[in-house]
Amino acid sequence: MSTNTTATLPYEKWFLHEGQEGLRAYYESVAAAVDVVSAVTERMKAPYHGASPEQVAEEVNRLSLPEAKETALHQVLAELTPLLAHNIHVNHTHCMAHLHCPPLLPSLAGEMLISAFNQSMDSWDQSAAATYIEEKIIAWLTSLYGLGQTSDGTFTSGGTQSNYMGLLLARDAYCEKTWNHNVQRDGLPKEAGTMRILCSKAAHFTVLKSASQLGLGERSVVLVETDEKQRLSLTDLQVKLAQLQKENLSPFAIVGTCGTTDFGSIDPLEELAAFAEAHDLWFHVDAAYGGALAFSKEGARKIQGIQFADSLSIDFHKLFYQPISCGAFFVKNAAHFRYVTFHADYLNPEMDEEDGLVHLVNKSIQTTRRFDALKLYLSLRTMGLETFGEMIDDTLQVARRFATELDLSPDFVVVNKEPEISAVVFRYEPKGDYARDEMTKEIHHQLFYESKAVIAKTTYEGSLYLKVTLLNPRITMEALRALLDDIERIGQNFIQRGGNGRD
Ligand SMILES: *Cc1c(COP(=O)(O)O)cnc(C)c1O
């Protein structure tokens, strides 16, 4: 093949490359995608446009699959646009069900850079500058959270992976220290069945899931009762620990939650740190939700004690307003990352370390990994920490005002009257004889299908409640009052239709 045939290869137009032609093709593809985002956003009248699951499934069913010959991007996008309009619109202020945020604009620009340059964060030769940028952001965050000189961290896919890593390191450190046993090499020790993790019953389900995946079993997780503010009860913690000691079991870790998923409650972190220290437990803090409070004037006080964590989970795709996925995991003692380090000859051989090369795969359970640090950096650097903090403070304030109004209203019941962060759990409950859970379920359902609001439901003490997780700082009290009017209307309708009876 002669060299000048390269210019005529049929694949040229599918790749980004130097030269005007390649760049023009790039601009056109990206502009076509931007047009779709604009078109869908422009028509975004509600957080959800109300189609039933059957309708959506049927429309998706008609979507053409890849064919033998090429199809123009604008044509495929034109087919897709009506389907994308059926998505949940996270940028709409009335989308407030889960910890699912509207992404900040600089982070969307960041996503473009991340994907176009497609760096892989496993080895230095796949991400030269990106490796050091991630390291710089990690170092800045470890100092922000006060984790100390020996700490270190890594970006992760989110809280699930971060919690898993925390418990993995805790497990392996304990086995090494207690039984001189190397889990990485030899698998679980024979005593593994006695190992126990403590956390509150409001802790995230991924504590249980991690325990199961780590070979300890869900039964290794001891659930501590919560107090009236849905925080881990220190009284019950003492009781649970005494029981474990009596049964000769081996508690090795305690998980404190800094922002529970349902209530946003914050466990007493300082007391838990002291407890962990006194009983030689690994202190893991799950701050997937509450981590962002570090930037807020009011919030920073609430998360005092986070600096004592042996390991820490932070999610940036929640209250840091980053597109999915973006999370981080930190350890107080960087040496503990050795439990997830594996040297592969082709990727991160030990001899590279002698040459001073940094391979981030040594600190991760992922191999190929996105350069998510960039979008977080772009967001915080452009927005400025002051505005970012104000945004968090404002969101907390709206949540508190909303909870107060609910509490003052005779027909509403609110479980967390003083929300620590931005989740409010409540229900419409006027006096009378009717099936309360049934009505709550109907309200939740109708709000969704009437395109009024996407909110969540959850169970508290055996009863069904509504839940809003306020993340979008553009939400107003007026909008929230209108939501309550809708809830009342649907509820009254339920009662008048004869929703009598009891749950
Ligand atoms: C969301 C959440 C998780 C799980 O994080 P993902 O990013 O969804 O994997 C863990 N813990 C808490 C407290 C959370 O809110």
Write a structural description.
This protein has 503 residues and is α/β, with parallel strands linked by helices. It folds into 3 domains: 78 residues, PLP-dependent transferase-like, CATH 1.20.1650; 262 residues, Aspartate Aminotransferase, domain 2; 111 residues, Alpha-Beta Complex (Aspartate Aminotransferase, domain 1), CATH 3.90.1150. Helices cover 42% and strands 12% of the residues. It has 16 helices and 11 strands. Strands 1-7-6-5-4-2-3 form a 7-stranded mixed β-sheet, with helices on both faces. A 4-stranded antiparallel β-sheet has the order 8-9-11-10, covered by helices on one side. α4 packs antiparallel against α13. The longest helix is centred in the last third of the chain and has 24 residues. It is globular, with a radius of gyration of 25 Å. The N terminus is likely disordered. Pyridoxal-5'-phosphate (PLP) binds next to α6.
Residues in β-strands, percent: 5-15%
CATH class label of the largest domain = Alpha Beta
* Average pLDDT taken over every residue: 95
- What is the strand tally? 11
* CA-CA gap between termini: 78 Å
Ions and ligands: pyridoxal-5'-phosphate
Helix/strand-derived category reads: alpha/beta
How would a textbook summarize the main sheet? 7 strands, mixed
Strand order of the largest sheet: 1-7-6-5-4-2-3
The tally of structural domains comes to 3
Q: So, the CATH homologous superfamily of the largest domain?
A: Type I PLP-dependent aspartate aminotransferase-like (Major domain)
CATH level-two architecture of the largest domain: 3-Layer(aba) Sandwich
Helix content: 40-55%
**DSSP summary: helix tally:** 16
**N-to-C SSE string, H for helix and E for strand:** HHHHHEHHEHEHEHEHEEHHHEEHEEH
Radius of gyration: 25 Å
Catalogue the unreliable spans: 1-5
3D shape: globular
Query: What is the name of the CATH topology of the largest domain?
Result: Aspartate Aminotransferase, domain 2
Keywords: Decarboxylase, Lyase, Pyridoxal phosphate
InterPro entries: PyrdxlP-dep_de-COase (IPR002129), PyrdxlP-dep_Trfase (IPR015424), PyrdxlP-dep_Trfase_major (IPR015421), PyrdxlP-dep_Trfase_small (IPR015422), Pyridoxal-P_BS (IPR021115)
GO cellular component, one term: cytoplasm
Cofactor: pyridoxal 5'-phosphate
